[in-house]
Amino acid sequence: MSVIEANGIYFSYGTGEALAGVTFNAEEGEFVAVMGPNASGKSTLMKIILGLLNPKKGTVKIFGMGPVLEKERVQQRIGYMPQRESIAKKIPIEVKDVVLMGLTAKKKRLDFLGGKDISVAKESLESVDLLHLWNKKFSELSGGQQQRVMFARALAVRPEILILDEPFNGVDIPSRNKILESLGSRKMTTIIVVHNINPIVHYIDKVLLLNKKAIAFGTPKEVLTTENLMEAYGASIQIVECEEGYCHPLLGDTHG
Rounded distance, CA 233 to CA 209, Å? Predict the structure, then answer.
């Protein structure tokens, strides 16, 4: 069953075209990676799925609902980790407060949070091995730890769809692996925006290769070809294929 259906999505910022006729779908429980060069429309597409932007043309359905017209119902079923957030260092907010933010937003009022909510928040933090930092000031954490806390916040709402926008930027390898380990143990539809797909290629089911238009959509082996990558990035990119059949494009680690 398709839980996300995007058909012919077009969006522009003024006269600047951001997306041009993008079509793709995500089935229940699928892990879909979205990749492409800088300014290819990746984050714009995520904002459209979340109902934060309305496409100029085309349609998006989340569980059969329009994310703009039925924003609250849609967002109740989505966990979202945006690109690296900066929480003011002068604000003495603790890790527990950050993780509980998502639950607070869904319930609208802080006093609605009960023991069950606290337990769920602690479970989410424990899944990335940071429960011992529950009372620690968020500003005192390393960059990798902060990203793991933000990931735990997205998990705490127990989403049916999880959207992660460049979650590994500035993250050390142990933190990245903890996030991937947690993802691998959960059954939910996951959309992840990445520049370097190699660390997650063994985890994902589908790839959407994007450069304003959908260059290709399918399994990693179908999408990660020299021809498709040339069209997306405008440069020849070497593909390394392992014995297991996984394709690894040599894109480097530059943020996209």
Answer: 10
Q: Residue 244 — very low, low, confident or very high, per pLDDT cuts 50/70/90? A: low
Contact residues for 15 (Cβ-Cβ < 8 A; gap 6+): none
Alpha-carbon torsion, ordered 105, 147, 130, 108, to 10 deg: 0
Alpha helices, DSSP H, located in 22-142: 42-49, 71-75, 95-107, 115-126
Total count of residues recorded for the chain? 256
Put simply, whether the predicted model's pTM sits higher than 0.85 gets the answer yes
Q: Which amino acid is at 71?
A: K
Q: Are 131 and 159 in contact (CB under 8 A)?
A: no
The H or E element that residue 175 is part of is helix 173-184
Q: What is the dihedral of CA 223, 225, 227, 233, to 10 degrees?
A: 80
Q: How far does the chain reach from its first CA to its final CA, in angstroms?
A: 31
